Amino acid sequence: MAAIEPRYAARHAEDVIRLEDELAQMVVSVSPSAGNIVFELRISGRDVLWFPYDSVDDFKTAGHGFAGLPFLGPWANRLDEPAFYANGRCFAFDMTLGNLRDEIPIHGLLMATDRWRVLEVAADDCSAWVTSRLDFFREPLWMKQFPFAHAIDLTHRLRDGALEVMTTIENLSAAPMPVAIGFHPYFQLTDSDRSEWMVSIGARRHWRLGITKAPTGETEAIEDIFPNPRAVRISSYALDHVFDDLVRDRAGTAVMSIWGREQRIDVELGPNFRSMVVYAPESAPLRAGEAPRPGDFVCLEPMAGVSNAMNLGHRGLYSDLQYIPPGGTWQESFRIRPSQREKG
Predict the structure, then answer these.
(1) For position 1, what pLDDT does the model report?
(2) pLDDT (average), residues 143-160
(3) Is residue 122 classed as helix, strand or coil in its secondary structure?
(4) pLDDT digits (tens, 9 = 90+) for 13-69
(5) 290 pLDDT band (50/70/90 cuts)?
(6) Whether pLDDT at 292 is above 50
(7) 228: how many CB neighbours lie within 10 A of its CB?
(8) φ, ψ for residue 139 (rounded to 5)?
(9) Helix (H) or strand (E) segment spanning residue 43
(10) What pLDDT, on a 0 to 100 scale, did the predictor assign at position 343?
(11) Taking Cα atoms as reference points, which of 157, 164, 127, 200 lies closest to residue 337?
């Protein structure tokens, strides 16, 4: 009797971990030394992640992280000043260190780091996974900007036709640590033109943005900007919008979706992801020497809190900022579930 091939496999070759689900025809590729980015998520041979580079090395040379599925920490998206607030105190950034992206800091400190350590690459009858750790507390220049000692474990797990991303943060400091991390997946569909893509936004509240594109504290009902938030044609908007008060099922899961003619991508958020940013600009980020082109992607970004959550919380304008007690942990996951409707 011929041996039955296992459904799941996990392979580690040089700097790439490859997770495979034979039954679902899914392949996930992760590069720990490039910010622990997921740079490939294929289903039936079609990649649903936008990654316009010939190789991971080309991506590293670009140095900005605007592709694939990057992790954002210790804060996600924009702050509205070169400082953040926690525990009633202001922590001003040292702008001379060279590890911030802008005068209005965006996307944290970790998008391009090569300091992730692979702890485990494995597969069994139920899934294939890789777990990596980042010891934030070991890096003096990071601690200078965000002086909360902590360690982060990320597990990317391929299971039952979905990629699950589990984040665990351990607070090693003696003070409560604010949680403002997030992810910035760049999704693409290959079955239709971008003008046909639709987005479903499972949220009730929209946060207005100020001149720095950070939330100001003013909010409005989502129907004030989208008459039907469950079916938004992205070509009708230049989307860079922050949402919370997410619509959840009985298990606490919120779902955001994008679809074209046959392809669909659902992003399923656990309860500790309290916010979602939807980003679909009219033009994509440029590589050196490139001419402007349409933004061939949509970003559905799971966030622990709204953009600028730490500063808004300090001003009494945001009440949902999460903290990790000294010695405690924060943990949450989200899942990316691509699917394809049969033609006919």
Answers:
(1) 56
(2) 98
(3) strand
(4) 989 999 999 999 999 999 999 999 999 999 999 999 999 998 999 998 887 778 999
(5) low
(6) no
(7) 10
(8) -105, 105
(9) strand 37-43
(10) 57
(11) 164
Q: Is the peptide bond before 74 cis (omega within 30 degrees of 0)?
A: yes
Q: Give the model's pLDDT for residue 3.
A: 66
What is d(CA 305, CA 220) in angstroms, rounded to the nearest whole number? Answer: 17
Half-sphere exposure of 112 (CA within 13 A, CB side): 13
